[in-house]
Amino acid sequence: MLVLFSGFNLLCTAQNNDENSGNKKNKYVLYSVFANYLPDGFNFPGIGFVNMAKGNHSTAYIGLVNYADCLSGTQIGLVNTAKQLPAGVQIGLVNTNLNKLTGVQVGLINVNGGKVNGLQLGLVNYSDTVSGVPLGLISVVRKGGYRALEVSISEIAPINVSFKLGVEKLYTSFNLAYNPNAEQKVVRGVGIGSIIPLRNQFFFNPEISQMNTISTKKHSSRQFLRAVPGFGFKYKRMNIIAGPSVCYFHTKKDGIINQPVMQIFSHTFDSRNKIVVGVHAGIRVVL
C-alpha cells in the first residue's frame, strides 16, 4: 500500500484482483476527514464525517454516517448502515443492518432485516428473527417474537391490564392498574420479565416492574416497586399465571399509602414507606 499526505487528505493505493484477467491492479483511494470512499479489501480504518465502504471489509469506521456492503468489524457514528454484518458491532444513534447480524447493536434505534445472533441494546429494537436478546423499551421481532395481553388481579389493584413485547427470554411489560377504592385510582408503569420453560407446559415467569400513580395538585405521586416470581401453565395461546408478589410502596409526602388488595403480609416503616407480600393471578393471551 502506498500512502501520500496532502493537507487534510491522504492519497492511498491498494491492490485488488481484476475480475476479468485475475491480475492485480491498483485502486486509488482519496482518504480525508470529510468523506472516505473505500473499495473492496481496503482494511485501513475509516475515520471521517462520512465513510462509504464497498465490498468486504474487516476494520473499524468512525464518523457521523458509516456505510458498508459487508463488514466484520465496528461502526461508530450517528447513523450506521450495513448490507451485511456477519460479525461486528454497531454503536450509534440509529443502526440499520439489512441482513444477518452476528454481534452487537447499541443505539437509540436498532433495525435488523435478518436474523440477530447477539445483542440489540436500545430504546427501540426491530429484527426479523432473534436467537440472541433484544434489550430495550420497545423490542419487535417479526418472526418468533413474544406479544401477549394479560388481565390480572394483584395486591396493587383488583383490575390490572398489561401488554408484553419482546422475546420469551426477555420482554418488556407495559402495565396499567385500576383500584376504585383507592385515593389515587390509576397506576401505570413498565417492567421486564422472562419465560423459563419447565416440564410439560409449565414455566417459571419472573417479573420486576416500577409503577406509580398519576400525581395531581392534591396528591403527590406514589411509587410501587414490584417483584413477582410467578408460574404459568400454557394451553395453546392461553396462559394461566399465578404466584406471590413483593411490593414496596413509597410516597414523597406524608399521607395514606394506597391500601393493598390481596395481601398476605405487610409492614409499615413510616407514613411514607410500606412493604407488602401479596398475590398476583391472571389470564394471558399470546398474540
Could you give the topology of this structure?
Layout: E1 2-6, E2 9-17, E3 24-32, E4 35-38, E5 46-47, E6 50-57, E7 60-62, E8 65-71, E9 74-97, E10 101-130, E11 133-135, E12 138-141, E13 146-153, E14 159-167, E15 170-178, E16 186-193, E17 196-197, E18 202-213, E19 222-235, E20 238-251, E21 263-268, E22 273-286
Parallel strand pairs: 4-6, 5-7, 6-8, 7-9, 8-9, 9-10, 10-11, 10-12
Antiparallel strand pairs: 1-2, 2-3, 13-14, 13-22, 14-15, 15-16, 16-18, 17-18, 18-19, 19-20, 20-22, 21-22
* Largest beta-sheet characterization: 9 strands, parallel
Mean pLDDT: 84
CA radius of gyration: 26 Å
Count the beta strands: 22
Order of helices and strands: EEEEEEEEEEEEEEEEEEEEEE
Global shape: elongated
Number of helices: 0
Distance between the termini: 56 Å
Number of structurally distinct domains: 2
Helix content: under 10%
